[in-house]
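Q: Convert this sequence to structure tokens.
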Amino acid sequence: MAKLKTLIPDLASRYFQELSDIRRHLHQHPELSKEEEKTAAFICATLDRYGIPYRKGIAGFGVIGLIEGKNPGYRCVALRADMDALPVTEENKTPYVSQETGKMHACGHDVHMACLLGAARILSEAKDLFTGTVKLLFQPSEETYPGGAITMINEGVLEDPAVELVIGQHVFPTLDAGKVGFNPGPDMASADEIYLTVKGEGGHAAVPNMVVDPVLIAAHIIVALQQIVSRQADPNTPTVLSFGRIIGEGRTNIIPNEVTIDGTVRTYDETWRKEIHKRVESIATSIATGMGGSCEVQIAHGYPYLHNNEGLTMQLQSLATEYLGKENVIMLERRMTAEDFAYFAQRVPSCLYRLGVQNEVRGITSFLHSPTFDVDEKALETGSGLMAWLAVNLLQER
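A:
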């Protein structure tokens, strides 16, 4: 292991420029969920160049690579990166700005893929120095329900060989590049989508007594639903209920027939999660009925909450400290964002940690999903080397 502790950071440094080129290529050519065909082809071509065997076409455009060390049947750990981009029009002026209008790697999946490819190359060159097998999971469709993780699992990615542990990393724009963060236990919330269709009887806005106003009904519903969080949720159970889209196709003098409302509900408790669904429907439909209209409620069941295995996470934090130094490893708080990595964590002990990408001096501070999101590419050296380091150490542990 002493030799690997020197070799891995040396290789991560040596391949930094190549990883930067890979990341920039992926950033320039983003593909949305379920459309990652060219991205997958690029990953396969890169794995071919590294001499790493793989299978493609998993869960659509997913790719699974396999790196076998000595005694490959000893145990197997998996490293995961997601592949899809977001429907965001990039506003950066960098040389590697997205060439696809309305599509952008605004959540850092280009970084995730580049880091995993870098870790793969390092591990492939060091395979005579570790025991066991590393499985590479390039996962499509993280950004769109039902998510690629559950489909990959259903298609057997955790089998043949059986995976004991899964590790993932996600860019974190409020943490400086060169640093990483961990959070054992509940880490990210469940996320469900709410779709309400409020129906009334539209007409002339000057004679409101002759209509059933769905705009007014919708307003009452939105206000009333907030009491689920403020008055019905246990204060010790984080809960978010937000509405981000309201459409009523009326005019200044026209009250429409219906109004649609789209939102999200998030929490960390699966029992409470189910109860929220019931309460949303009950409150929305009863208010609409009481005001002379009706409300159709659809709730799309999204990702479960992500639970980082406590023992594994603390072990990874210790290994990261050994690799990066104590000053570069921090503890983070849980967040109300969501990730379909949670499905892996439901099957085997798993951990999704954060990779710092911020550089305030260079103005790299924009948050995820924004049109000006960017990263300090120093993170590629940190992320690729650390993933390789964590994998080889976990393979040695029993």
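The chain has two domains: 2-188+305-396, 191-303.
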